[in-house]
UniProtKB/TrEMBL annotation:
Gene3D superfamilies: Bacteriophage SPP1 head-tail adaptor protein. NCBIfam families: gp16_SPP1. It comes from Marinicauda algicola. Pfam families: Phage_HCP (PF05521). This is Head-tail adaptor protein. InterPro entries: Phage_SPP1_head-tail_adaptor (IPR008767), SSP1_head-tail_sf (IPR038666).
């Protein structure tokens, strides 16, 4: 069910894009920078599945995230779910909410924590 009012957007996310982060001494490394901060969102768990990573089974959780419509979002970006210990959600697909073009839906999956 899509959000129908601002009150349905109870979570807060930051939208990040891939960038080159200055490490000092003229050195840059791949990293993330904020594209949009404090974005109101509705986050609904969709499913979970197990995938193999480095010969270990890892749970991957998917979410449907509804936000106010924005331009320029794509599947190279991620969300940082502020209300949930800064969980990282990679954007898998972007689309408009059926029946209400004020909102958009992002299908996301939770990134594995860095080791």
């Amino acid at each position: 069910m899509a959000a129908r009012s601002a009150g349905d957007l109870r979570e807060v996310v930051t939208i990040e894009q891939q960038s080159q982060v200055h490490q000092g001494g003229g050195v840059y490394a791949p990293g993330w920078s904020t594209l949009h901060g404090s974005v109101r969102a509705r986050i609904e768990p969709q499913s979970g599945r197990q995938v193999m990573r480095a010969e270990q089974t890892v749970d991957r959780h998917r979410y449907l995230v509804t936000i106010y419509r924005r331009t320029g979002l794509d599947n190279t970006m991620r969300l940082v779910w502020t209300n949930e210990s800064d969980r990282k959600l990679r954007i898998e697909s972007v689309g408009l909410t059926p029946g209400d073009r004020r909102y958009m839906e992002l299908v996301c999956y939770e990134e594995e924590p860095a080791t």
